[in-house]
């Protein structure tokens, strides 16, 4: 049976009209809530918005409309940090509210989500990204892709800032994830799959850090399925391809996907398409579907089974090692996402070496930087300078050196000698045996004293 039949879903034009109507409702609610003044959104007392750009944001669009309640006409993106309550897990989540890339549901899919996360010991960073038209959206009844997706710029910048401030915020930079709803779900998928792409020129030291989330939660996303704008009677629902701007690979972080089957705004094929792409790429993923819930249920579906979705999310976070009750292990935030808490003797300086990777069929470069305060390491691609897969558990025992690559589960080990660092290992691939890869030599690029 055709999945869309018998579920009462509106056809795409009707669903897009509904999305536009929802945006209008947001604006109407704002006017009422603010006594027709349409004051800009503000966080609760005790929390402060911080601009994520030191000056004018990149690719800033002319904006003559002042920002209003419910975060419309946002030209100055900000982040608001909510500290965890009780025991700190060390994890952090950047929250992307939805709103069709026209407005932002800062309460339903923002502060209310942060209330849940901080109650579980997770630092929450609520991003007020630029709108309108900062990502794929509908204008005049037609699909519109902006020349530059400025919401993605804001998302990448915020992830880097969280890692930059990890020590001050008591966050483990290896456990920084994202959660997004509706259009924010698309943004979560975009930042999970486009971290190798630098979408803006660096502005300060934070931009040297990775923008790859360590995990992602994608909730009733939109703008993902290639056939979403086609007529229900003729579109091919068996073709679950993604739109071209979302390119899933094995390096896409572990992902939790959630949707209600009777969602009439962004139909369930959006999540199905993303999950199928994750599965085919070998990226770890879970998909959870509920029969009822509609769209934009957030945490408010109190009379439906979908209200239990946060319990599933917590189980998943615990299963991937991001959700516990212990304080995070010590780390050195300045070293970046691959930081080690202590120096690794004999690895002082910066080491660089070419990896002959038979699995990915491209050369990779290992970067190790160590001094008296700590050691960091990343694995990069020469043809994709921002690839930046973090390395963890870098350690040395005598002449033996080893590390793991958590994005793929790969393990490498080798020997340190006067001639350099020689490593070999296996690049893990889901659904198949590990394939070998090795460093012929990794000589010091800038040796330490």
Description of the structure:
- The chain is built from 7 helices and 21 strands.
- It has helices at residues 12-33, 107-119, 150-164, 166-169, 183-193, 269-281, 309-319, and strands spanning 49-51, 78-82, 92-96, 123-128, 137-139, 142-144, 176-181, 216-219, 255-260, 285-290, 339-340, 349-357, 362-371, 374-381, 384-390, 392-397, 400-405, 410-417, 420-427, 435-442, 444-447.
Summarize the structure.
By secondary structure, the chain is an alpha+beta fold. Helices cover 20% and strands 27% of the residues. The strands form three sheets. Strands 11, 12, 13, 14, 15, 16, 17, 18, 19, 20 and 21 form an eleven-stranded antiparallel β-sheet that branches.
CATH superfamily of the largest domain: Alpha/Beta hydrolase fold, catalytic domain
| Biggest sheet details | 11 strands, antiparallel
Residues in helices, as a percent range = 10-25%
CATH architectural category of the largest domain: 3-Layer(aba) Sandwich
**Count of structural domains:** 2
Average pLDDT metric: 77
Radius of gyration: 22 Å
> CATH class of the largest domain, anyone?
Alpha Beta
Q: Which fold name fills CATH's third level, the topology of the largest domain? A: Rossmann fold
Figure out the total of helices: 7
Pick out the low-confidence regions: 1-37, 325-344, 356-362, 427-433, 439-449
Distance between the amino and carboxyl termini: 70 Å
């Amino acid at each position: 049976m055709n999945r869309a039949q018998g579920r009462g879903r509106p056809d795409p034009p009707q669903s897009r009209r509904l999305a536009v109507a929802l945006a209008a409702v947001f604006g109407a609610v704002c006017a009422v809530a603010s006594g027709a003044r349409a004051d800009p959104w503000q966080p609760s007392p005790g929390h402060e918005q911080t601009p994520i750009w030191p000056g004018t944001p990149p690719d800033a669009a002319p904006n003559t409309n002042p920002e209003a309640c419910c975060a419309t006409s946002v030209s100055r993106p900000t982040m608001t940090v909510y500290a965890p309550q009780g025991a700190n897990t060390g994890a952090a989540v950047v929250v992307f509210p939805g709103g069709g890339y026209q407005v932002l549901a800062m309460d339903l899919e923002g502060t209310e989500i942060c209330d849940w996360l901080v109650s579980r010991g997770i630092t929450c960073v609520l991003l007020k990204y630029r709108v309108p038209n900062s990502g794929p959206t509908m204008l005049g009844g037609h699909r519109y892709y902006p020349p530059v997706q400025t919401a993605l710029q804001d998302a990448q910048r915020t992830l880097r800032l969280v890692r930059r401030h990890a020590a001050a915020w008591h966050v483990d930079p290896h456990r920084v994830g994202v959660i997004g709803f509706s259009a924010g779900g698309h943004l979560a998928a975009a930042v999970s799959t486009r971290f190798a792409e630098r979408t803006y020129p660096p502005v300060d030291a934070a931009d040297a850090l990775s923008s790859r989330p360590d995990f992602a939660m994608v909730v009733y996303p939109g703008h993902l399925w290639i056939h979403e704008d086609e007529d229900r009677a003729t579109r091919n629902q068996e073709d679950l391809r993604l739109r071209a701007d979302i390119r899933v690979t094995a390096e896409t972080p572990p992902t939790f996907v959630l949707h209600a089957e009777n969602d009439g705004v962004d139909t369930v094929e959006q999540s199905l398409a993303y999950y199928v792409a994750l599965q085919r790429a070998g990226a770890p993923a879970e998909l959870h579907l509920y029969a009822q819930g509609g769209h934009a249920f957030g945490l408010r579906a109190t009379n439906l089974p979908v209200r239990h979705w946060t319990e599933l999310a917590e189980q998943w976070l615990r299963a991937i090692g991001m959700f516990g009750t212990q304080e995070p292990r010590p780390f050195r935030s300045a070293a970046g996402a691959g930081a080690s808490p202590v120096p690794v003797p004999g690895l002082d300086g910066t080491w660089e070496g070419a990896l002959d990777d038979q699995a990915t069929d491209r050369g990779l470069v290992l970067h190790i930087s160590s001094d008296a305060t700590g050691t960091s390491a990343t694995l990069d691609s020469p043809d994709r300078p921002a690839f930046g897969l973090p390395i963890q558990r870098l350690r040395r025992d005598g002449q033996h050196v080893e590390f793991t690559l958590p994005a793929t589960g790969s393990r490498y080990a080798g020997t340190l000698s006067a001639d350099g660092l020689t490593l070999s290992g296996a690049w893990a691939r889901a659904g198949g045996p590990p394939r070998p890869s090795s460093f012929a030599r990794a000589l010091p690029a800038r040796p330490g004293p």
